[in-house]
Amino acid sequence: MTAVTTDAAAPDARQAGRWVYVSAVALLCAWVLVPLYFLLINTLSSPETVNSFPKPFIPEFDLGSLTFFANFAGMLTALKNSVLVAALTMIMSIAIGAPAGYALSRFDFHGKELFRLLILLTRAFPLPLLALPLAVMFIRTGLDDTVFGLALVHTTLAIPFAVLITFALFSGIPLELEEAAWTLGCTRLTAFSKVVLPLILPGITASAIFAFVISWNEVFAAAVLTIENRTLTAFLLQNLDTSPLHLKFAGGFILVVPALIFIFAVRKYLFAMWGIANR
Amino acid sequence: MAQIEIKNVAKRFGSYQALHDINLTIQDQEFVVLLGASGCGKTTLLRIIAGLETATTGEVSIGGRRVDHLAPKDRGIAMVFQNYAVFPHLTVFENIGFGLRMQKLPNDEVKRRVERTAELMHIEQLLKRYSGELSGGQRQRVAVARALAMEPDVILMDEPLSNLDALLRMEMRAELKGVLAASNTTAIYVTHDQVEAMSMADRISVMHQGEIVQAASPIEVYRNPAAEFVAGFIGNPPMNFLPATPAGDGKWSVAGQVMDGPSSGKSLKFAIRPEDMRPADEGLTATARVVEPLGAHLLITCEVQGSMFRAVLDSDMSVKPGDQLTLAPQPDRMRWFDPDTTLAVA
Hints:
Chain A contains 13 helices and no strands. By secondary structure, chain A is mostly helical. In chain A, helix 4 runs antiparallel to helix 9 and helix 8 runs antiparallel to helix 9. Chain B has 8 helices and 20 strands.
């Protein structure tokens, strides 16, 4: 008896479960995609359409907003600053982070666990807490309102990720490969350049791109530490209440697109950072 | 000429003593197997010779030259690793030629030597492939070819066959032995597999708890184990042991039987290989417990005065569990051990 009832109920229950699953997925996708879609429509519409109501659901591919954005005073300089700061951040965080990741994966030293914890702890302090003392210090040393100064702060933010990603990548390369290279005529350095580096290069690139995105998206430190040489995020924030709607949309779009593309390109390595690599 | 001399080598990892005072001389072109259970220090010793590990104390010389302070690349060695360590970003050709390229040999010389060693290892059709496209056995061949292409004075192998399946292992064993004999290199081969050791070695060096217990030819190690550990480790099934009590000068009482043995004042252990027992009218009385027909032989696990005892008999015999057997040891194959020092007594 009972067996029959459950058999009859099971397909219904499974059907219902499936519906819940599908609608949850659809809802989550919409949560992320709908705002992005509106951003796209409004960027590719003429300023008049953006400011009118109701808005169309299909972009009209008018470059008016983007042209306005490009011609807005100071906008292109801010864009250039953003790229410069992000590139510097990328270079510095890899230059500092990758050797640390190598050391963590290859050598045993005292306080290794503490070191790993400390790296994570740098993310435990809210940036506002650090930004104000930093601003004071930067003004004293003359680093305030410079691209390099801001890149230093962004490097600090990006390093924990650079270390953890490269640590996971180096750990994925068996020590035996390096040892084999040593017995075949390599020094520690040539073994690294001929065996480890080629294997790890895609991962290093990914970690560099991630550092780039962190800097690209950062707004608080950028807003506090720069005045003349603002990055795009800081510049947009500064003009938030005074700028017209279509400028905000175009700016938002320009900010989001590179970050989205980059993150999508390196997603595999970001998973590797948490030890769930699917290689 | 590449004679290897290891003098008073010891290795300590923190408070753990991995190797105690190892002394071993390996002749030019000799094939020596370091045999022992895992954790006995055999791989550590090999890595010290390779230069991947530094000895805490002691000296290592290759070809009469002290090498303890040289980097692996300057020792004239090549090594085959347990997990092959084939470089995944290079083709088989570039893997085999890796060491030659490091020596900056001209392209045509690299090509000639890579092709020759590839042919020797029967992988000439794989030269364009990557490691990911190879089977375990093929990777193994690449690893050996890469070491041979260096034309080293000494080739070091760390359990190279342990990741292969049984059939492939047997095939590679014979092939490796032939290739190495033809290459005129001195070889040190680490394994825990006694069949590999017996079948390949010129000399077996049995290691136990960081010490070399016996270093001798395979047949000597098998017939005349220097210590109880060797007797119990080598041979499948291993030697049988029974307590022996003195019964007059040169006479010993073993499980109620009086046998001829060495002259010694105290109690000894009697030892015999299972295949050296014969059914006879007079001998040890054994009760069969388990009978395992192995085709060529019959392996019988029995009880002799409360001790477990194994005998390998002809498969024509019909024995059932519970049967009483009378087994006589072959007199020239009986061995005796001192229970205190565990060493052999002649």
